[in-house]
Amino acid sequence: QVQLVESGGGLVQPGGSLRLSCAASGSISSIYTLGWYRQAPGKQRQLVATTGRTGNTMYGDFVKGRFTASTDNRNNTNILSTTYLQMNGLTFEDTAVYLCYARRYDNGRWEEYWGQGTQVTVSS
Fold this sequence. Notes:
mainly beta, about 120 residues, 7-stranded mixed sheet, about 0% helix
């Protein structure tokens, strides 16, 4: 099992910045992907950014260089333990619940985990 706890959401004006954090705990040695999705009211869940063990990061098309994902690895290994999302140039369309995501491989199968989500509201 993996537990994910997000922090850092809040209210920000258009053009502003926020930094989200997500700490993973539990069986983190078997996490292969750690990152972020978001979900706005009435819309489908959307990829924001995910990072794999090799350090490669995939971003959603809408990011367009505004967001940067980074990770902390446990004890200088390739074990993903914490992920951050630096968001700059926020717009009204970025208002959503941002959910931390982990994908883990254990006993021959893949498992997905989600955090409880942190609200990001962009408003003037």
